[in-house]
Structures are given as structure tokens and as C-alpha cells.
Design goal:
heterodimer, A: Rossmann fold, FAD/NAD(P)-binding domain, 16 helices, about 30% helix, B: alpha/beta, 7-stranded mixed beta sheet, about 10% strand
């Protein structure tokens, strides 16, 4: 077939016309091989320009199209759409950037004109070897993977499960519920929690649109919004991983507590009756607050901000649950004395202050402290600290409750690696934008909710779960089509030597290894066409559509001729 | 090196014979089902790697032959590229061959799971062309030189090899620093421990004298290597000198074919991508005035340097195979030392250390990044 390449130069108003002698460009290129027509136009991206192009492509019966205009970032898509509308495969088009890379970077019209000619010739050289590529459309998958079966994951799952949308809920522990199952009551309302949690778990278990995996963890998650391929494996058995596809992922892996043993001055792990907040919650829930000797404590110190300095952030929830602890204690042991030692009291919100005011009283006091050290004092504990004025004080108590900082979950880095999302400096998952996109991540279709994103109380967590569900429900509508990347990588079976270099280099997990043939294989639906494998392949077996050797070679050749 | 364990073994009547005896015993006891080992060809004038299944044939083996026609890593790769196989194999090779084997395993071209690799202190090998002139005489000369650690007649790369006692396989035969009529059997892995154990060898002897001697020897060689590379760089450095050096190249690509770590199924420079039209060549001739044929000989070497200098073990197989006497191995060893140092990598040293290309670190090669941001 004889090539008929149409070349159209955009004046871009004065942007290009002022710096490039377009008539000279046309004169130089008009007799080049395969150039059927070359014309200029005032503004090709305008409605008139697009109409002109469409008519030209049809009228001139073009086989290939070159447009010399702006950066591909601006209007490559525009002109591809025009080509398609005119019946020309959009990949038989090449855009030469003679604005940003030419007109805008020099005052020298003569030089700019020469460079424009080279850039257009490079585009012609390249487009000559372009092939038609066909767009594919696949149905997006409306199902959702929720990682983490705590309150955040439970809520997200319940919000998302619909007759036309399956939810896969993966929990590492043997049971759903997470941390909150240890809490007797909720801060603020002081309402019993068990009933609510158990109710929700019951709802999950009876919802046929939710598939629960306990004792399980996500082993692999590759793909993109609308099309993730997931593998889940059991933690307690060597079973083959279960595979399924989803369209979105909600990460709700929660948090853990700072290890108080790292601060030996608090005596945790070495002194009796020094316990963490979580241990106290469990003790309280079991129904009996008692010392090692079985007796109820007469005096308790709650030490806030354990590890705050080390972690470098405020964990938000400790002050509030410490007030809750004071209430647990005074409700159950009427004569008990509770001292809250804090370095900064953080009780924001429209109603929290009230509970603080109520709690503060003759048996519950709040002391600003620094430099605390806990030692044994006969059968009791001695808490030595500096008060607000710097004077040293010694407080003798029966029990010390430490409120350690909230830390990222142990599995956070593993999940980050599997899903390809980022962790911030503190190790919590990084949101796309702290303020305007707080539950989205840098990967479209992967959301973070609850303490996985940072320390949070239960209501804030639920709000995030609902928000993530809302985002997914509104964007991942069943029946929505998605277009996988067309310019994907290919690995030649004849050339691949099976060194597996590409496997570890692919950022999208799009390459697998065929053990029987000993070669790498690209999953075209997952591949995003980044070209990493092409660059890394030592055998030249990997190539990428639309960036073929010949296309690039001819482009470079013309540019530097 | 600290984890190495060793035993002092009596070498009667010779080191070679003792090694062979141990291999025979291992096969008899089922420690190994087969052995890959060099053997003298019936014609007498060459040595080749052989996969020995019948242990009675081991008596003709030559664990330390005077030449290296085929790099041992290629033999191991041939046997195990498609998988570990069902039988346990011992492979006896020189340290540079072991290192190439390790690189191939990392590149998926060898499977060492069922393989026990045995190396030995290496005195070097004779250039193949020298050896072939008078094989019988050269075998004698080699054995004498090997005893005296005289490297003058060895491959130029052997003369500057600082890793001739590097242990990166499972077992190693150490002759340096050993008392008369003994050698050290050194284990570097649980596989090595296991094999020694089954042979009734207790790895509890002191190997300090070997380690000290190896260090002195390798330090000396390092100095020699540095000096040689410096002189070479003055001769071949820069594009003009490089083009001049490779101007004798006849494009036979032998260097690539014998290279143990050149693994591409089809070399780019043998592919259609370097077949251009007459117009293309005319255009190139036009731009430069003329163009030499065969073209791209320097580009071929530079491409190879980019591809495999990270895995190059400086074995000298390429130089040995060059019919035009281009010091290609010495050039590659120089480039390899520099590229490997960039990534703090020693090819073939450790099977668990990934090849730098697949081990991405955010903070590396900062010196080549834009200093503006």
C-alpha cells in the first residue's frame, strides 16, 4: 500500500507562527517521501481546526497523519479523537511538538525553523512505521476487596455489599472484630459496644454478598481501578491461594500500639501492675479490675503520651480513652483515686469537653508532667515526675496504666508492597491529599480507611469507611467499561531466555513466568505500557507496541541527521 | 569468609588423586549420583567437561586441567537450565567458573538446588592456542608452574586474577598454606557440610594458614591488577583508542559465544535490528565520508559491556577465543571491576545477592543524577 502522509502545521495563534517560519517549513517538507499534503492552520485544536482536519483526512484519503503543534500532553488525545472520527486509526498519527520544545525556547527564528523541520521529519520518519492498534474494552469488575476485619473493614463491607456487588473481606485473625472487641464501652456515649459490634459481625456473616476469609492474608494484588487480580492465602494452612478479581480495594488493617518496653523508665514488663491501655481494656471487659494480688486498686495513675516523643506525633485517642478509663474505674471502685499524667491534653470536638469536665473531680485529677520514672515502692508503685513548675513529685499508686502511641499495623509495609501504595514517614499509609483526598491513595481504586491511615477514634473511622464506600459506589458502577492500555509490552517467545529480570522490574505485576516454556509472559490487561521491562530485558525479547525499535530508530535518525 | 569451616586432608598420592578418590567414594555412598568434571580426551590433546555417571570412569578425570576450552558454567547450565533434575550432581570447577555458574543461577540459566559445586585454589590456565602447539609438553610445564605458583605462561587475565581462591560454591580444595602432602577441604554451605559429613570428614580443623596465604596472595594480585588496568586504560581509553583497539575485529562474535554470562538467545548484534538497507549505509557513508565494513564492531563490544559487565567474572574465555588477539578479556575485566564497584557488587560471590539491575534502591547512583534538584 502506498503511504499518503498528511502533515498539518498549527500556528497556535501567534505562539508558533511568530517564532517559526511556517511557510519555509512547508516548502522544505512538501517534497519529502510519502508526504501527500502539507498545510498550515491557525488553531488546529479549535472546533474549526478539528473540523478542517477531519475533512482533510477523508478528502486526501490519508494513510498516516502528522500534526506539528503543541506538547502531546496538551492535545495528543484531541487529535487522536479527530483521527478516529475521520476513520483513521488513531495510532497512525504522530504529534511533533514544535511549540514547547521549539518556538517557546528560543528567540532565534532561523534556528527555531530549522529545528521545527527536524522535529516534523522525525515525526514523519516515525509515523511511517506505525501500525494500527485496536482499543479493547472490558467490563469493570464491581466487586471490592476489603483488607482487615476490624470496625473499619466491617463497616466498609456492610456499606458496599449489594446484590450486584460482592465484597471479599480478608482478616488475618481467626475472628472478625479487631481491636474494638476488647472495649466494654465507647468513649463519649459510654454505651456498651459489644452488642453493636456483634450485631455488625452477625450482619456480615449472614450477608450472602460478603465472602469472609479469616486466618487469611492477601498474597497478591495486581491491576488497576476496575480490574484488580487478587490472591488470598490462609495463614494457618499450606493451601493454594484463592484467586478472584475485584474493581477496588479498601485497606482497613488498623493499627498497633507502641512497644512500651522501649521506654524502660516506665517499668513495663518488669514491674507488676504496670499495664498498657489495651491490657486495661481487656481487664475491664473481663469484669474485674484488679491488681496482681487479686485486690482492686485504690489508686491508679494513667500516663498519657507514652512514646509520643519517639514517634513524633499525637495519637489523638489516648486522652479521650483515659477519661473513659477514669470513668470505668470510678464507676466500679467508688473510692479509687485516679491521676491522669499528661504532657498535652487533647480533647477536641463539640462534646468531648463535657465528659472531661464531668470526670474531673475530687477523685480524678489531671496533672501536667514530664520526665516520669516508675519504680517499685514496697507493694506499690512510685511515679516520680516533674510537674508543670519543674518541681519533682513522687506519686504512690497501686496501678499504672500506660497509654502508648498508636503505631502502624505490623503488616503495613507488606501491604504497601503488595498493593503498591505508599507509606508516609510515620509508616501509616499515605493518602492522596491530607485535606482534599483523605481516603484515596496514589493508586486509583485503592482506598485507606481507619487507623491504617493514622490514629483515629471509632466515629472518625466509621466516617472514613462510609466515605470509601461512597466513592466506590458512585464510581465503580456495575456495567462500567474500562479500556486497558493499548500500548502494552510484548515478550517474544523466541527471544526470551528466561532470566526473569523483567519479573522483579515490572511495577504492576503484569509479568508472570511460564515454568514449562521457561519464558516470561505479559498479562496485557494489567500491563500499563511503562516500558521498564523493555529497557531491562537483556535479550531484547521485550518490546512495546507503538514504541517499536524501528519507529524509534527512524525518529531519532531523522532528528539527528 | 568467617563462616567457612575446614578440615585438613591427607593428599596421597597426590591432591588430584585424593579428590578423585573422594568423588568415587561419594558416588559409591550415594552422596552424588553423577559428577561434572574435566577429563582428558582420548586423543590426549584436549580436556573437556564430562558428566560422569559411571564412577569407574572417574579415574581418568583431571580436576585441574591446564586449559579451559569451555567455561565450566556453560556445562552446568547445559545440564540444569531446564530444571534441577532428579539426581544429585557434583561439579568440579575453577573459582571463576563457579562464579559464572552463580551468576547464571541468578539469571535463571542454571539450577543449583541438586548441585554441589566444588572449587579449588587455581593457579591459572594456559591460553588455548599456546597449549595446542605442544599439548604433551605443555601439560608438564603447566603442572610444574602450578606447583610453583608461577603464572607467567598463564592467560593474561589469570596473571592479574585476585579471586583465584574465592569460595562461592559449596566445597573448596585449598592448597595454599597447606603442609606437605595435605590440603584443606573447606565448606561454604550446609550442602558442603553435609557432603563432608557423609564422607566422614570432620570440618573442625584450623584453616587460618590457608586464609592468611590466600589474603597475601590476593592482595599481591590486586596490586598487579590495578596496575595492569591503569596501563590498559591509557592504551584503550576514550572512543578513538577503543575504535582503534577493535579495528581488527572480524565480527565473528566468538567472544560472545564462549562468554559464560552472555546468555541472550539471539544477540542483538546478530539480529535483524542491525541489518540495514543500502540506502541507510549510503546515508551513513555520506554523513561521515565513508563507512568501514563490517560495521559496528566497537558498538558490539560496548553493547556487551553494558549488558554483562555486571556479571563478568574475568575468566578470559573471550580473549582466549579471539582469533585476532584483541585483549578483549582484559578490557572487560577493567570495565567489570568499575561497574561492579559502582553497585558494591562482586559477580558470583553470593547466590543470595541479587543482580544490581533487579535490586532497585531509591538512593543510588546519585552522582549521575541532575544536581539541580
Amino acid at each position: 500500500m502506498k503511504r499518503k502522509i498528511g502533515v498539518y502545521v498549527c500556528e497556535c495563534g501567534p505562539n508558533i507562527a511568530e517564532k517559526v517560519d511556517i511557510d519555509k517549513v512547508i516548502e522544505a517538507i512538501s517534497s519529502d517521501k510519502d508526504v501527500a499534503v502539507i498545510k498550515k492552520f491557525k488553531l488546529l485544536c479549535s472546533a474549526d481546526g478539528k473540523k478542517f482536519l477531519e475533512e482533510e483526512i477523508k478528502k486526501q484519503d490519508l494513510t498516516h497523519l502528522v500534526i506539528a503543534a503543541c506538547s502531546p500532553k496538551d492535545h495528543e488525545k484531541t487529535f487522536m479523537e479527530v483521527s478516529e472520527k475521520a476513520g483513521l486509526n488513531p495510532y497512525l498519527f504522530q504529534l511533533a511538538n514544535i511549540r514547547e520544545q521549539c518556538a517557546w525556547i528560543t528567540e532565534d527564528k532561523d534556528e527555531a525553523t530549522k529545528k521545527a523541520i527536524r522535529l516534523i521529519r522525525a515525526a514523519i520518519g516515525r509515523v511511517r512505521y506505525h501500525s494500527s492498534l485496536e482499543k479493547k474494552e472490558i467490563d469493570s469488575n464491581p466487586d471490592v476487596l476489603v483488607i482487615g476485619g476490624g470496625i473499619a473493614g466491617i463497616e466498609a463491607s456492610l456499606q458496599l455489599a449489594r446484590p450486584n456487588r460482592k465484597v471479599y473481606l480478608v482478616e488475618k485473625a481467626p475472628e472478625l472484630g479487631g481491636l474494638v472487641t476488647n472495649f466494654e464501652k465507647n468513649f463519649l456515649s459510654m454505651k456498651p459496644l459489644s452488642e453493636i459490634i456483634n450485631g455488625k459481625i452477625e450482619e456480615i456473616n449472614t450477608n450472602e454478598n460478603i465472602k469472609v476469609f479469616t486466618n487469611s492474608e492477601v498474597d497478591e494484588a495486581v491491576g488497576f481501578f476496575g480490574n484488580f487480580e487478587i490472591k488470598v492465602k490462609r495463614t494457618d494452612a499450606e493451601d493454594e491461594p484463592v484467586q478472584f478479581d475485584v474493581g477496588a480495594v479498601v485497606i482497613a488493617i488498623g493499627s498497633t500500639l507502641f512497644d512500651s518496653k522501649k521506654l524502660p523508665e516506665y517499668g513495663y514488663g518488669t514491674l507488676n501492675n504496670v499495664i498498657t491501655s489495651l491490657e486495661f481494656e481487656k481487664m475491664n471487659k473481663s469484669g474485674k479490675i484488679s491488681l496482681k494480688n487479686g485486690k482492686p486498686p485504690k489508686s491508679v495513675a494513667i500516663i498519657h503520651c507514652v512514646g509520643r516523643k519517639e514517634k513524633g506525633y499525637c495519637s489523638e485517642i489516648c486522652c479521650m480513652y483515659s477519661i473513659k478509663f477514669a470513668k470505668y474505674l470510678t464507676d466500679k471502685i467508688p473510692s479509687v483515686k485516679v491521676s491522669n499524667l499528661y504532657s498535652d491534653l487533647c480533647i477536641p470536638g463539640k462534646t468531648n469537653q463535657k465528659l472531661y469536665e464531668q470526670a474531673k473531680g475530687k477523685n480524678v485529677n489531671f496533672i501536667r508532667f514530664s520526665d516520669a520514672e516508675i519504680t517499685k515502692s514496697k507493694d506499690q508503685l512510685s511515679v516520680k515526675y516533674k510537674d508543670e513548675n519543674g518541681s519533682k513529685t513522687n506519686l504512690i499508686v497501686d496501678m499504672v496504666i500506660l497509654a502508648p502511641a498508636v503505631e502502624p499495623a505490623v503488616d503495613a509495609s507488606k501491604i504497601a508492597e503488595i498493593t503498591g501504595i505508599y507509606q508516609g514517614d510515620e509508616g501509616f499509609f499515605e493518602e492522596e491529599h491530607e485535606k482534599i483526598n483523605p481516603i484515596s491513595t496514589s493508586t486509583e481504586g485503592i482506598y485507606i480507611v481507619g487507623c491504617a491511615q493514622g490514629p483515629k477514634n471509632i466515629s472518625e473511622t466509621l466516617v472514613q469507611s462510609e466515605a470509601a464506600a461512597g466513592k466506590i459506589l458512585s464510581s465503580l458502577v456495575p456495567g462500567r467499561k474500562i479500556e486497558p492500555e493499548v500500548k502494552t509490552s510484548e515478550i517474544s517467545e523466541a527471544l526470551c531466555i528466561g532470566c526473569k529480570t523483567c519479573l522483579s522490574i515490572c511495577s504492576y505485576g503484569a509479568i508472570t513466568f511460564d515454568e514449562s516454556k521457561k519464558i516470561s509472559v505479559v498479562n496485557e490487561v494489567i500491563c500499563r505500557g511503562c516500558g521498564n521491562c523493555v529497557a531491562a530485558c537483556p535479550s531484547g525479547a521485550a518490546s512495546i507496541k507503538h514504541f517499536k525499535f524501528k519507529q524509534l530508530y527512524q525518529e531519532i535518525r531523522e532528528a539527528i541527521k | 569468609m568467617s563462616k567457612l569451616k575446614g578440615a585438613i586432608v591427607a593428599a596421597k598420592p597426590s591432591v588430584e588423586k585424593t579428590i578423585i578418590g573422594m568423588l568415587e567414594k561419594s558416588m559409591k555412598k550415594g552422596v552424588f549420583d553423577a559428577v561434572i568434571i574435566p577429563m582428558r580426551a582420548p586423543s590426549g590433546d584436549s580436556f573437556a567437561y564430562v558428566l560422569v555417571k559411571d564412577k569407574s570412569l572417574l579415574k581418568d578425570a583431571t580436576p585441574l586441567p591446564p586449559t579451559m576450552f569451555v567455561q565450566g558454567a556453560k556445562a552446568v547450565s547445559s545440564v540444569t537450565r531446564l530444571g534441577k533434575g532428579k539426581i544429585k550432581i557434583a561439579a568440579v570447577m575453577r573459582p571463576c567458573e563457579v562464579r559464572a555458574t552463580v551468576e547464571l543461577a541468578k539469571l535463571g540459566q542454571a539450577n543449583l538446588e541438586n548441585m554441589t559445586i566444588i572449587s579449588m585454589d587455581c593457579p591459572g590456565v594456559l591460553p588455548s592456542s599456546d597449549f595446542l602447539k605442544y599439548p604433551e609438553k605443555n601439560i608438564k610445564l603447566f603442572n610444574e608452574a602450578a606447583k610453583k605458583l608461577d603464572d607467567k605462561m598463564m592467560r593474561p587475565l589469570c596473571q592479574i586474577c585476585d579471586k583465584s581462591s574465592m569460595v562461592s560454591g559449596d566445597l573448596h580444595i585449598g592448597t595454599l598454606g597447606a603442609k606437605k602432602d595435605t590440603f584443606f577441604l573447606i565448606s561454604n554451605s550446609t550442602k558442603g557440610d553435609d557432603a563432608a559429613n557423609k564422607l566422614g570428614i570432620n570440618l573442625k580443623d584450623n584453616i587460618d594458614s590457608w586464609q592468611t596465604k590466600v589474603k597475601t596472595f590476593s592482595d599481591e594480585k590486586k596490586k598487579k591488577r590495578k596496575k595492569a588496568h591503569k596501563e590498559l586504560k591509557a592504551k584503550v581509553g576514550g572512543i578513538d583508542n577503543l575504535v582503534e583497539t577493535f579495528s581488527h575485529c572480524i565480527n565473528c562474535h566468538n567472544c560472545m559465544r564462549v562468554c559464560p554470562v552472555c546468555i541472550c538467545r539471539l544477540c542483538y548484534f546478530d539480529s535483524d535490528k542491525v541489518k540495514h538497507s543500502a540506502e541507510d549505509y549510503l546515508e551513513r557513508a555520506e554523513s561521515k565520508g565513508s563507512i568501514r565494513f563490517l560495521p559496528d564492531t566497537t558498538l558490539f563490544q560496548m553493547g556487551r559491556m553494558m549488558h554483562m559487565s555486571i556479571s563478568c567474572v574475568s575468566c578470559g574465555a573471550c580473549e582466549d577465543a579471539c582469533s585476532m588477539s584483541i585483549p578483549v578479556g582484559q578490557i572487560f575485566s577493567m570495565i567489570a571491576d568499575e561497574t561492579q564497584a559502582l553497585f558494591d557488587y562482586v559477580s558470583g560471590k553470593n547466590l543470595d545477592e541479587p543482580i544490581p539491575l533487579v535490586a532497585y534502591k531509591e538512593e543510588e547512583l546519585l552522582e549521575v543524577e541532575d544536581s539541580d534538584d
